[in-house]
Amino acid sequence: MIRRSTLRAQIATALRDEILAGRLATGREFTVKEIAEQYGVSATPVREALVDLAAQGLLDMEQHRGFRVHEFTLDDYRAMCEARQLVLDSVFAGTALPSPAAPEALASVRRRAEAAERAATAGDLDVLITYDLRFWRELSNIVANPYIADFLDRLRVQCWVYTVPLLRAEHSLTGRLWTGHSSLLDALEARNEKETHTLLAAYHAHAAAFPATA
Question: Is the whole model's pTM more than 0.70, yes or no?
């Protein structure tokens, strides 16, 4: 039997993926009952999952009406990118990877990096989002404490929520998606501070330039 806490997490993850994919569009309103019927479960774990997503900034709670998918503005996006840059640059300053980092952890990050790059090159947005989030989450877990890793993961999800509708509206994603995952990991493993800084600067510039070119 699935525990309620596990079901709550599963529903929250499924709904987050729906929002990231754009299937739950910005501004979409829905009730606990609607989601419970959709997933064939009771209202309690659904309500808990929706409250969790609201705490992550992905949903707005509408009094006596239910929930609504939060709408991030351009100013929100720029502020999130700025916050992410400040934290990333601080976390990765100097020697980033602990010595020695667990080989199995690095191997997993490497697989995420390669999968993300293949998806970015192919313009496969759904696959890219999955592996990009996993890449940064696992890398952050290696170089930072869990609270910083959680904060960065939350910012990255929110940034994706803002950019996905704009990217889906484009005719072609060729050359539009960042593909520096493996290069960044190479620089970190080599403890090359200069190259790490250069790659992070390019990553930040790519994110900052996106709204102007979307």
Answer: yes
